[in-house]
Amino acid sequence: MVRRRNKRTKQSAATASSNPPQIATSGSAQASLQVVVKVPKDTSLKLPKDAIKRINIGQSFAEYDAALNDPTIYVHTPALAAAADPESGKVFFVGRRGTGKTAIRRYCALNGDQTRVIVPEIFSPSSTLQEVELLRNVKQRPFRSLVTAFRRAIQIEIVSIWLDSYPTRPSIPSEVQQELDTFADLDFDLRSLKAISRISGALADGDDERWLRENKIAKQVADGIKKMWSNVLTTQTVLIDSIDDYWEGSDEGLVYLTAFMHACQEVSTQIPKARAILFLRENIFERVRALDTESSRIETAVVGMEWTERQLLEVVERRLNRNLTAKFDLKGGTWQAFFEQPDDAWRSVLDYCQRRPRDVLIYASNAVEAAQGAGHERILIEDVQQARRRFSDNRFKDLGDEYSENYPRIATVLSRFYGLGTAFTFAGVESLIMMLLDDPEVSRFCGTWIYENSSPEKFIRLLYDIGFVGIRSDGKPVKFRALGPMDTSPPPVSNTTDIVIHRCYWDALDLQDRLVRDLSGKKGFGKIGIIEDLPGGFDPNEYADAVEMALSTLQELPLGTPGATDFEEVVGDVLKLCFFRSLVNVEERVRNHNGRVIRDWIASNRATSGFWESVRSRYDAVQITWECKNYTDLHADDFHQLSYYMSEAAGRFVVVVFRGEIKPSYYEHMQRVLASTKGLILPLNTKDLMVFLRQALNGKIKEDHIQDRYDTIVRKLS
Question: What is the rounded CA–CA span in Å between residue 651 and residue 482?
Fold first, then answer.
């Protein structure tokens, strides 16, 4: 059982209204969403027999989407062109979730010259050798020391990519060889930490000579690389993605990330045929820009992930065409062939989506599934309308997940809009804030940020920044924020300002089509069912208590036999608290070893999408074993034991959780298991468990961290 601090009776949620609001087709709330792409009308277009049954839109999350292995599926946007062109000078690709950053990363990995993907963990440092305030000045030695350390780490990563393409080791300048001897055997994070320790240690000791020597090494190595690559024609590219996996939003992490971005730009601009591309969420980039007094230099290398309506239409059309022998054209002809009322259908999709490819793909996929379920030969407008509620629920969940690092449990605050209006006056926002501050759950789960944003102006800015509302003032059209790093400032906010909730959230929140002017007479908030998505028997307070207890226990556990039982218990808690949406029916598997009872865990894999669904498909993994090892080093007999858990009945995928770091020798053992059983062992450690628990505490439900862990293992074994 998952341990609880406080046992409370779970509160029953109020039933949602059965009558969703009527969606207006005109008015100021839609002024910023006017459709400019006109779908052509050509009555000669006709679908092949059973075409609707054979549609496979693919996964809307790029990390799981097998369709992206096909180069013809990509839409060639300015951002994609900049990423594919080594001479573009663009290094930072910035946008909200679902705008195509990971898709571009996959395109570069598929079509680039020599590439490697890394997911750094360094941006959640537990300590620094300098005071944070000393690191904030980007022109002073402490910050420049960080830039130099990261630059050295990136340069060695790029050189190692180049060396991997040579069967025999080429002639290497002595300064480059010395750097390889020092750092090449370390992964990127450990290499960065070692470089930071060396140069920051010299600075902390006041040893100017040693500091200057360490600082100059980066340039000396860069000069050596230039000589070494005088005749190299291909570009060596390191792709840095999923920064937010380990992002805790701390001041130290922000300084580290800012220095890392400077290092990426220096490497990309100063070494020919070398490139470091960073994919970054816009909310994280905004914090970097606020800190960095030299951000104008970085901004010259930034590409925003903006999409036109025509490009969004092409995203769907390429996927609708994918399984057809004879293709329709990509300028509206494909859409018209598949949809019975193409212009009305496209307007319905676009008016309800934010301008992101993920939104459009999810909505279109829901409409396709509705048509397939009803046995329609084309996608009817009724199918599009039926898909709307499901799409709205999905987008609302994703919004809370997207900004959970910046505003933990923000979904709790957003859920309090349930059953209210689609728009609020300034006075209406004021009265809403007063009710939020009196709400016990909001105070507990969101207290770290809600009080700092409790003025109407700051609260409106926050809701605008996350894309939940647009701002309407002085009779002007509603303005919603851009998806990329540009034009993020909202219009001025005054007592004549109204906010309008984005249409994609109306159905999920069962909003009434009215302007809310005052809530002072309202007693309490309505309840929304999808927020109470917690493992059985928990209310939100009990769930938070259990996660916090697992976190605190994990931080204090001793290694070996003294802490083994508690470690096994924590692993079971992580399984039940963090993966309950996909892994169910969790049971202990008890065995006796040398007189001590050892517990592992086994869970049924019931996932219908995402990481665990792909694991079930690839490895027939209907049952997932989680093996617990409360020690730092795994041995050959551990891997031999893990292979025995693989079978045709349960599947060929096993998770082993231990307390150390992955060593190169582990890959040899995993490779032997893969060759003999066609099964995979996924090693996770204490840091991974901490990430899962922190994400659960913040309300984050995305599976990107464990997906990245899996991808790393697969690349090493391939």
Answer: 45
